[in-house]
Amino acid sequence: MISIFKTDVTSKKQKLKVIGCLVTEYPGHRITIDLDDCDKVLRVEGNTFEEKDIITHVNEQGFACMMLLD
């Protein structure tokens, strides 16, 4: 499963904070944030996550996060 989210993460420090939180919750998943993309895209690849839970975890770190539609 691959899910794509729009975020408001803008710096490398923020990116590392969000990814660190998500990797702790979802070990073995591939998680990236593209700071060069206008939507600051968060991409999560793995088999055992719910999209709403990813949004909740990012929001708890103080950042906006929403699903990007196909």
Please provide a written account of the structure.
A four-stranded antiparallel sheet has the order 2-3-1-4, covered by helices on one side. The mean pLDDT is 96. A hairpin with a 6-residue loop joins strand 2 (30-34) and strand 3. By secondary structure, the protein is an alpha+beta fold. The chain has one domain (2-67): Alpha-Beta Plaits (2-Layer Sandwich), CATH 3.30.70. The protein contains two helices and four strands; from the N terminus they run E-H-E-E-H-E.
**Looking at the structure, what is the overall shape?**
globular
Q: Strand pairing plus helix content: what structural class?
A: alpha+beta
Number of contiguous helices: 2
Strand arrangement, major sheet: 2-3-1-4
CATH first level:
Alpha Beta
- CATH topology category name: Alpha-Beta Plaits
Tally of individual domains: 1
* Architecture (CATH level 2) name: 2-Layer Sandwich
pLDDT averaged residue by residue: 96
Q: How many strands?
A: 4
Order of helices and strands: EHEEHE
Outline the biggest β-sheet.
Answer: 4 strands, antiparallel
In whole angstroms, how far apart are the ends?
Answer: 14 Å
Helix content: 25-40%
Low-confidence stretches: none
Measured by DSSP, the beta-strand proportion falls in 25-35%
Radius of gyration: 11 Å
